[in-house]
Design brief:
By secondary structure, this protein is mainly alpha-helical. The protein has helices spanning about 5-15, 40-55, 60-70; strands at about 25-30, 30-35. A two-stranded antiparallel sheet has the order 1-2.
């Protein structure tokens, strides 16, 4: 089982919860990448995403790439 299988399972399970959960990419419990909201601009999403996953101990250029990639592949 890989991360994509886990993400698919999480999305399917979220459909069974009232109200439905917003899916997010979960790398581990301390690193959750939020999902772009409908009609959210790329700038707004990237700012929100960086605020969620950012930290002084993490390489900012890699975090930025993750957020942009997540937005583009929504």
């Amino acid at each position: 089982m890989n991360i994509h299988d886990l993400q698919r399972i999480r999305v399917e399970l979220s459909k069974q919860v009232e109200p439905p959960m917003v899916p997010a990419l979960v790398v581990d419990e301390s690193f959750i990448v939020p999902t772009p909201e409908p009609n959210e601009s790329q700038n707004d999403y990237v700012s929100r995403c960086m605020g969620v996953i950012g930290g002084e101990d993490k390489p900012q250029d890699q975090l930025l790439a993750i957020c942009i990639s997540t937005y583009e592949n929504k």
